[in-house]
Amino acid sequence: MSKTIAINAGSSSLKWQLYQMPEEGVLAKGLIERIGLGDSISTVKFGKEEDQQILDIPDHVVAVKILLEDLLKHGIISDFAEITGVGHRVVAGGEYFKESALVDEKVIEQVEELSLLAPLHNPGAAAGIRAFRDILPDITSVVVFDTSFHTTLPKYAYMYPIPQKYYTENKVRKYGAHGTSHKYVAQEAAKMLGRPLEELKLITAHIGNGVSITANYHGESVDTSMGFTPLAGPMMGTRSGDIDPAIIPYLIAQDPELKDAADVVNMLNKKSGLAGVSGGFSDMRDIEAGIQAKNPDAMLAYNIFIDRIKKFIGQYFAVLNGADAIVFTAGMGENAYLMRQDVIAGLSWFGMEIDPEKNVFGYRGDITTPESKVKVLVISTDEELMIARDVEKLKNSK
């Protein structure tokens, strides 16, 4: 009997979940927000209880201390020794990591080095890893990479059509992201369909504030929409997704507020997507409210969003030469039923038919009619559970 904590650290946040392993029971979960920004918020949920504090949390080391103290304070654990493993989600593993790995100093340095590929995510993850090592140095510490699931991409899928020296010398290639989520929902889809994953062709659509679509052939990722960084792919909450790269120098020449390529990339990451087109709304609920109010910018943002997701799903029907099911997951994928309806309506040629009585808020499972040739599934993702499972696997291999 042991307890494992799964950590998902961002630049100014730390999301966590504590499991009883190997039973996989959730003992508690929480979120620490605004780390280093003042008026930090720490929320802990356990059983039917919830506790929230507003504190000054200057860095991830202090955040980890508060997290652990809360576990003791609320009686969730009686001693730190009960925690035998910690797993850290890391966005970019580059070509170093094809699977999850036990943490040592070299691994942390590689995570920090790969911050060039995920500047919004890897630095916070590295800070969280170091904080846990400082406070609980003897527990099994594991890093789980969003990119590792996509290391099965064939070379023709991950290479860009630019001079090859930029791959051999600078490692410029498609890495993908959200791999932990795509892997989990593909496994759950196989269970739901009652068929071996090794026989299935699936298109998994992780649609949250970040959006990525993956072609899964017999359990392996063979193509995915995010690229060298998580900026690529369909339109997202605040990210543009794919654009003509010639736009970047053009905007630098035209807009005095954009001084260099870094400024443009920042704009494409943080001020574009749904938010950029709609005038500030990155949340689909706000977009839908804007449509109800006949806001033309909200309608345009929505139509672009649907268009781009349909195009990527259509691409992956070609990549897989057909599919058994499409899986929607993550915040919008699981909850925005109108978005699912409109995406699938534009793909009806492939033989999909939505059952409107099932395609409703809160429903999980198959949302198609019995006659539908391709199934459409709604599955709640659980990246934290996948992290905890990898900790157990590596703990047992030591």
From TrEMBL:
Entry binding sites for ATP: K15, H206, I207, G208, N209, G210, D283, M284, R285, G331, M332, G333, E334, N335
PROSITE patterns: ACETATE_KINASE_1, ACETATE_KINASE_2
Cofactor (UniProt): Mg(2+); Mn(2+)
Pathway(s) it belongs to: Metabolic intermediate biosynthesis; acetyl-CoA biosynthesis; acetyl-CoA from acetate: step 1/2
Pfam families the record matches: Acetate_kinase (PF00871)
Described purpose of this protein according to its UniProt entry: Catalyzes the formation of acetyl phosphate from acetate and ATP. Can also catalyze the reverse reaction.
Entry similarity comment: Belongs to the acetokinase family.
Manner of cofactor binding, per the entry note: Mg(2+). Can also accept Mn(2+).
Catalytic activity: acetate + ATP = acetyl phosphate + ADP
Molecular functions (GO terms): acetate kinase activity
Protein name per UniProt: Acetate kinase
Organism: Streptococcus gallinaceus
Keyword Coiled coil carried by entry: no
Record keywords, A-Z: ATP-binding, Cytoplasm, Kinase, Magnesium, Metal-binding, Nucleotide-binding, Transferase
CDD domains, per the entry: ASKHA_NBD_AcK_PK
Record-linked InterPro entries: Ac/propionate_kinase, Aliphatic_acid_kin_short-chain, Aliphatic_acid_kinase_CS, ATPase_NBD
Residues bound to Mg(2+): N8, E383
NCBIfam families the record matches: ackA
E.C. numbers: 2.7.2.1
Positions annotated to bind substrate: R89
Localization (cell): Cytoplasm
